[in-house]
Amino acid sequence: MHDILARQRHAQQSDGPPSAALRIDRLDRAIGLLVDHADEIAHALRDDFGHRSVEGSLVTDVAASIEPLKHARSHVRSWMRRERRRVSPSALGLLGARAWVDYQPKGVVGVVSPWNFPFNLTFAPLAGILAAGNRAMIKPSEFTPRSSELMRRLIAQAFDASEVAVVVGGPEVGQAFTALPFDHLLFTGATSVARHVMRAASEHLVPVTLELGGKSPAIVARDADPDLAAARLMFGKTLNAGQVCVSPDYALVPRERVDAFVAALERAVRRMFPTLRDNPDYTAIVNERHHGRLRGLLDDAERQGATLRWLHPQHDMLGARRIAPVAIVGVHDGMAVMQDEIFGPLLPVLPYDGIDDAIAQVNGRPRPLALYYFGDDAAEQERVLSRVTAGGVTLNDTVMHLTMDDLPFGGIGPSGMGAYHGIDGFRTFSHARGVYRQARLDVTRLIRPPYGPLIRRILRTRIKR
Questions:
Q1: Predicted confidence (pLDDT) per residue in 420-454, tens digit
Q2: Is 211 annotated as catalytic?
Q3: Where is this region: Disordered (predicted)?
Q4: Could you tell me if 255 and 376 lie in one domain?
Q5: What is the CATH number of the domain that holds 85?
Q6: pLDDT digits (tens, 9 = 90+) for 247-271
Q7: Alpha-carbon dihedral sign for residues 337, 340, 341, 342
Q8: Which pTM does this prediction carry?
Q9: Of 163, 211, 266, 380, which one is the catalytic site residue?
Q10: Where does residue 169 rank: exposed (0-12), middle (13-18), buried (19+ CB within 10 A)?
Q11: SS3 of 230, please?
Q12: Are residues 181 and 301 located together in one domain of the fold?
């Protein structure tokens, strides 16, 4: 890994910032890799999960990876342009002074990508990394070994190791990877692991972007269409069997409508999945450890008095490592299911009495990666938006803000720091260098010693309200 890093850094320094044409060529190669090997990618993911919807993988890990690369390809020339800024005081501009920002490549960017969407959460940020003119080293998850090895092989076919390289291995490799002196490090994963990543990066003062998770709430307003809200909420909750960083983690529903809304959730699930047993559209849990963790959350909730409302009659006929969607009612904060991110098809449904009660329940927890609100009352919607701080928001749906190429994606506090996607990704992986060019007239002589009456007159004009 040190050799690859040294090779990339040497190439970056010796070649200088890549031209727009070269950046576009690299983006094209990444797009071509995904297009030409789409089926291979989907089948590798299916094998890694035990079962995963092939069409689902083509949507989330192939098509959703191609779009940000194409977006970057279309806009990289405009993103690279020198950005003019005003000089101050403005009189300097009249004398010929100029100020601007150049967006320089940072150099070599390390990418630690997770197991839930291995290709999307590598190639979506790679769009900004390559558009910004950087080189990249990638460490994919050991939990999806077939996908990681396929990624390593395909990247090696499309890129020289001095441009982009993939390093595979287990936790010890990941630990060594995050300790490398990158010019920027992007980590996507658990908040608990992010603390170790940030600590390792601090040894070399490596700037970090952390894309984490947390308990993302869905607030269902009294005026929301229950069946439409339930359908859209359960799409986000069953996508990849809930193994999504922006999956709705719990739903807040008006107290008097909890039972009716759970019934709507059941109707939504049965429309998407008429059968669950051997359904090719329904994804398995990635491994036995995570499956056991989710079963443990259900057992703990039941033991403490919660009621499990299974949302499909075939919930006990799914086979290995599959868990049916389930609503959990009667939960409280002492239950494990309400303490950490679920990352599975379990949906606690909590009652609220008024919108300020719902807001207080959300704000009583760490700031989430995503916030969802279902309802058409514009004033209430704005109240929620103004009172709740979250990484990103989708109104009247779930997950969709993540797919917007021109919106920044990122968390806040325990759900992450920094953002990427579109121009925000370009700027995250660039150094915004301010440049000032002085006027020909020697204006700074006015503030150079020896000081006298002139400087005092100048100061009187500047030091005032």
A1: 999 999 999 999 999 999 999 998 988 899 999 99
A2: yes
A3: 1-20
A4: yes
A5: 3.40.605.10
A6: 999 999 999 999 999 999 999 999 9
A7: negative
A8: 0.94
A9: 211
A10: middle
A11: helix
A12: no
